[in-house]
């Protein structure tokens, strides 16, 4: 049996339980817990005049009703602003339950606890809230020009404004360069809102035993939820544990924390001394969690006859909804990752992050990159059209060359560190993509078009993750890391890493993620970072364990540790298979015992013999047990890249858009499990197709979300997604021991740009707004 | 008002008292403890809650428990046989047809019924067959592959 599993298509360890109904998702927990439901604002902007709960009090099974006035101390304060930034001069966050003013439809106003969810909703329906309606601010441009304010103390509805400039080599600003460029273009681009939409919504379950609080949350960061709860409820950290159970998809929305419910449910569980659970329903998820993507971009570009971009100026209006709990990460990512695989002569980007009376905006898979890539790739296509050149030729003219890494883009990235690309080979990637899709042999005709999109994705951001690895006396290996899982297959890929590092069969390895009882220090799962940051931490922890195992085994075998290897869970002298000792025995020997409980552990008993009388049983500098803990803190982000191409067909009558072929070439450094990477890409592309052709948040001018259901928000089914053809390139990252980059978000990033390019090619019409529906294409054709 | 009903779930007779408005999905999950059936939208679009009612796939979130008194129900917990996972379940594992696993029970029930009716579906028929179930993770490609693979595994087992 081989234990060299890094790089293999290993079947997932998660699957047997998920395929047999034995997974444990949030709502599967606490069958006897009381149920929580919320009265949420039906208005986008209103002042609360009165809350009358009296009619609800007669509902059988009602346990408690809370409004903001019932909340004590820090629970009554606004939720934390998680990522402050000097440019976010007017950051605002919501109260857990609305205080005086509601600022979007769906904001929680009253919390109800009852014997079950049906009864809790009965009570909610009987609670009367009187509102004085205020003028809602809806739509980015309206927010900029409107006299109405989302927050009375935020002038112009502007939360943040940030300018970053990268001058030309000769020191000229982008504006100066564009003025004197041989060719210039100016245009506007629009991207509408979409949302992560995991099939499992959010949810919180809390149990208080008088001393300790145990919270389960469907979250992408259990460690940080834990710290937030401890701080808000005034509990000592060791008395709070937070566990992410099986999580039914996240895609970004579940990195936000603490959600109001993550504070309120534990708080009420303590107050009532009862087990409590809240499970979000689908409408709640649409109107009470988070959206993303909505931006308007104004672009000016100057370029030469070969299509080299000499100067680029982008002004972005970013709609961040009613609150800014996640700071301005999304527009920062848009404005930095917009540069893609290109050397841009000079660059100026300015974004304004704008309040509207809509659901807050926080990262959704891709996190601002799809918008940035849409901007840059539309720009490349327009340059090519202007010069009459092939679109791939213009891109190639601007590529950073393989010899130019590390390549400094001269900006500050979302992690507050320099935007320096670690490695890549963009010309080779383009060649592979052109081959895969058949770019050079494609013959366009009316109604048939081809499009391309290139991107670079900063992945594996810090600050750190850790790993703990323990070999127990039965020879099993227990791996834990603090970050969480939402379907990425972490149990499998981390086990592959441990199997490879330790020489242990994967069947004997178990992995736990997102459980603060097992590992308390972590950041979370976002930014395609889990494999890079936790993967390397686990590898480093395994190396510590391996070194210790070899040291103990060398003593037992009277051999030199340098002559030992581990395979199939056995430590043996290289070239002498007879001289060996199982890792299980090494684990026993690592832990000197007074009390033995079986024949195996008797080998470590105090009368077992062989111990030196010249040193204590646990030597100085040693610890009992065969285990190791280590951390990986990256110097900077790694930079994965990819290029996609699609062929689309448009119907001459109905303007329906069909994707006939979709091709992806992807580079995430060394692949741990190609099957899982491909799965991530497939899923990302499908979400990208949704964002390009179907998904939008349809707000009316009153701030009502008109399509807050799966009936009306059109997520793609199997019938909408083309077969995705993939190819890989592997340029290892020099920044980490395993040479890996992240893959989680990759698939979604360039899709809107690719489809826009292909539709434009098919129709001969500029496509500058996404998503594009058949109806919109129909109107574009008739000059609308 | 509670109604005493009898459901035959995964071959076992279960008696339960439920109010008229109790959804079958909630009855299975919360009254009978069969939490493998998931609820993704509660309005019949996502298909996560699909179970087999007398062998036919239905949305358990659109079905009142009292309306299926006396009927046979198969949930994801009942798909495996005494010898382990069913061909459909094994095919999904083999082809990486699931990621977070939340929609998976619905797809497994749907595919099981599909292949029972049509043991050798074409690509079109597979797409049509699963076109009532949403998945946000996989992009469906490996689910389609899994259904075809399950058909192969079932054919192999038939032939044995």
UniProtKB/TrEMBL annotation, chain A:
NCBIfam families from the UniProt entry: CODH_aero_grp5
Stretches assigned to the Aldehyde oxidase/xanthine dehydrogenase a/b hammerhead domain: 20-135
GO molecular function, one term: oxidoreductase activity
Domain of life: Bacteria
Keywords recorded for this protein, A-Z: Molybdenum, Oxidoreductase
PANTHER family in UniProt: ALDEHYDE OXIDASE 1-RELATED, XANTHINE DEHYDROGENASE
Keyword Oxidoreductase part of the UniProt annotation: yes
Species, as recorded: Nonomuraea dietziae
UniProt entry tagged with the keyword Amino-acid biosynthesis: no
Any Pfam family the entry gives: Ald_Xan_dh_C
Designated name of the protein: CO/xanthine dehydrogenase Mo-binding subunit
UniProtKB/TrEMBL annotation, chain B:
Pathway(s) it belongs to: Alkaloid degradation; nicotine degradation
Keywords for the protein's UniProt record, in alphabetical order: 2Fe-2S, Iron, Iron-sulfur, Metal-binding, Oxidoreductase
Domain annotation 2Fe-2S ferredoxin-type: ranges: 3-79
Residues forming coiled coils: none
Top EC group: oxidoreductase
GO terms of molecular function: 2 iron, 2 sulfur cluster binding; anaerobic carbon-monoxide dehydrogenase activity; metal ion binding
EC code: 1.2.7.4
Pfam families from the UniProt entry: Fer2, Fer2_2
Domain of life: Bacteria
Keyword RNA-binding carried by entry: no
PROSITE patterns, sorted: 2FE2S_FER_2
Identification of the protein by name: Carbon-monoxide dehydrogenase small subunit
Organism: Nonomuraea dietziae
């Amino acid at each position: 049996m081989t234990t060299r599993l890094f790089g293999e298509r290993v079947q997932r360890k998660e699957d047997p339980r998920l395929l047999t109904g034995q997974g444990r998702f949030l709502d599967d927990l606490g069958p006897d817990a009381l149920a929580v439901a919320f009265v949420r604002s039906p208005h986008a902007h209103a002042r609360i005049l009165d809350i009358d709960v009296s009619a609800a009090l007669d509902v059988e099974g009602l346990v408690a009703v809370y409004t903001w006035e019932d909340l004590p101390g820090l629970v009554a304060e606004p939720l934390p602003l998680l990522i402050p930034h000097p440019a976010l001069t007017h950051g605002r966050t919501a109260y857990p339950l609305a205080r005086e003013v509601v600022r979007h439809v769906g904001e929680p106003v009253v919390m109800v606890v009852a014997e079950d969810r049906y009864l809790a909703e009965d009570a909610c329906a009987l609670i009367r809230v009187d509102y004085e309606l205020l003028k809602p601010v809806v739509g980015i441009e309206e927010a900029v020009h409107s006299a109405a304010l989302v927050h009375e103390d935020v002038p112009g509805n502007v939360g943040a404004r940030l300018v970053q400039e990268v001058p030309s080599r000769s020191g000229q600003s982008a504006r100066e360069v564009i003025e004197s460029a041989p060719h210039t273009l100016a245009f506007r681009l629009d991207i509408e809102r979409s949302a992560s939409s995991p099939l499992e919504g959010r949810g919180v379950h809390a149990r208080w035993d008088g001393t300790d609080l145990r919270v389960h949350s469907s979250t992408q960061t259990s460690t940080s939820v834990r710290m937030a709860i401890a701080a808000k409820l005034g509990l000592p950290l060791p008395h709070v544990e937070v566990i992410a159970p099986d999580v039914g998809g996240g895609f970004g929305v579940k990195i936000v924390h603490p959600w109001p419910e993550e504070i309120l449910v534990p708080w009420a569980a303590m107050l009532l001394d009862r087990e409590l659970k809240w499970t979000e329903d689908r409408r709640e998820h649409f109107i009470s969690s988070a959206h993303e993507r909505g931006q308007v971009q104004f672009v000016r570009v100057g370029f030469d006859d070969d299509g080299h971009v000499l100067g680029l100026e982008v002004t972005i209006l970013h709609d961040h909804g009613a609150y800014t709990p996640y700071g301005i990460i999304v527009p920062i990512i848009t404005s930095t990752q917009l540069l893609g695989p290109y050397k841009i002569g000079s660059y100026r980007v300015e974004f304004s992050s704008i309040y509207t009376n809509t659901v807050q905006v926080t990262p959704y898979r891709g996190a601002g990159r799809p918008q940035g890539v849409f901007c840059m790739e539309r720009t490349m296509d327009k340059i090519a059209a202007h010069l009459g050149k092939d679109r791939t030729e213009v891109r190639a003219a601007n590529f950073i060359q393989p010899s130019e890494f590390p390549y400094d883009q001269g900006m500050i990235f979302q992690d507050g560190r320099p935007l320096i690309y670690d490695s890549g080979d963009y010309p080779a990637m383009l060649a592979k993509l052109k081959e895969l899709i058949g770019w050079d042999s494609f013959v366009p005709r009316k109604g048939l078009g081809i499009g391309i999109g290139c991107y670079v994705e900063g992945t594996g951001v810090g600050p750190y993750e850790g790993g703990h690895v323990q070999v127990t006396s039965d020879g099993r290996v227990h791996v834990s890391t603090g970050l969480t899982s939402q379907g990425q297959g972490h149990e499998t890929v981390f086990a592959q890493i441990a199997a490879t590092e330790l020489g242990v069969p994967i069947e004997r390895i178990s992995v736990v993620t997102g459980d603060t009882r097992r590992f308390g220090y972590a950041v979370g799962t976002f930014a395609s970072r889990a494999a890079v940051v936790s993967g390397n931490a686990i590898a480093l922890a395994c190396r510590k364990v391996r070194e210790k195992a070899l040291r103990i085994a060398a003593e037992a075998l009277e051999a030199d540790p340098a002559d030992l290897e581990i395979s199939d869970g056995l430590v043996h002298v290289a070239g002498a298979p007879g001289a060996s000792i199982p890792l299980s025995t090494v684990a026993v020997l690592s832990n000197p015992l007074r009390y033995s409980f079986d024949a195996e552990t008797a080998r470590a008993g105090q009368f077992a013999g062989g111990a030196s009388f010249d040193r204590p049983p646990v030597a100085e500098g040693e610890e009992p047990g065969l285990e190791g803990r280590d951390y990986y803190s990256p110097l900077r982000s790694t930079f994965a890249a990819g290029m996609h191409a699609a062929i689309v067909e448009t119907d001459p009558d109905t303007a329906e858009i069909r994707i006939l072929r979709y091709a992806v070439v992807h580079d995430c450094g060394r692949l741990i499990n190609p099957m899982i990477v491909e799965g991530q890409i497939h899923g990302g592309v499908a979400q990208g197709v949704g964002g390009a052709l179907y998904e939008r948040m349809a707000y009316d001018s009153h701030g009502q979300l008109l399509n807050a259901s799966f009936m009306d928000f059109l997520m793609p089914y199997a019938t909408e997604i083309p077969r995705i053809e993939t190819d890989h390139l592997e340029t290892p990252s020099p920044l980490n021991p395993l040479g890996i980059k992240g893959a989680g978000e990759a698939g979604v990033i360039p899709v809107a740009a690719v489809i826009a390019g292909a539709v434009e090619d098919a129709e001969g019409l500029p496509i500058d707004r996404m998503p594009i529906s058949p109806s919109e294409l129909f109107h574009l054709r008739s000059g609308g | 008002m509670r109604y005493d009903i009898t459901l035959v779930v995964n071959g076992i007779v279960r008696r339960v008292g439920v109010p008229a408005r109790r959804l079958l999905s909630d009855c299975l999950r919360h009254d009978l403890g069969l939490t493998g059936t998931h609820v993704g939208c509660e309005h019949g679009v996502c298909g996560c809650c699909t179970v087999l009612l007398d062998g036919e796939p239905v949305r358990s979130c659109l079905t009142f428990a009292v309306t299926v008194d006396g009927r046979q129900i198969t949930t994801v917990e009942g798909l495996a046989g005494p010898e382990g996972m069913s061909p459909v379940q094994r095919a999904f594992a083999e082809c990486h047809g699931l990621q977070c696993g939340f929609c998976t029970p619905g797809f497994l029930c749907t595919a099981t019924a599909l292949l029972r009716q049509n043991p050798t579906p074409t690509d079109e028929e597979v797409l049509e067959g699963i076109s009532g179930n949403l998945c946000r993770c996989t992009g469906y490609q490996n689910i389609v592959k899994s259904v075809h693979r399950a058909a192969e595994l079932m054919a192999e087992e038939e032939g044995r």
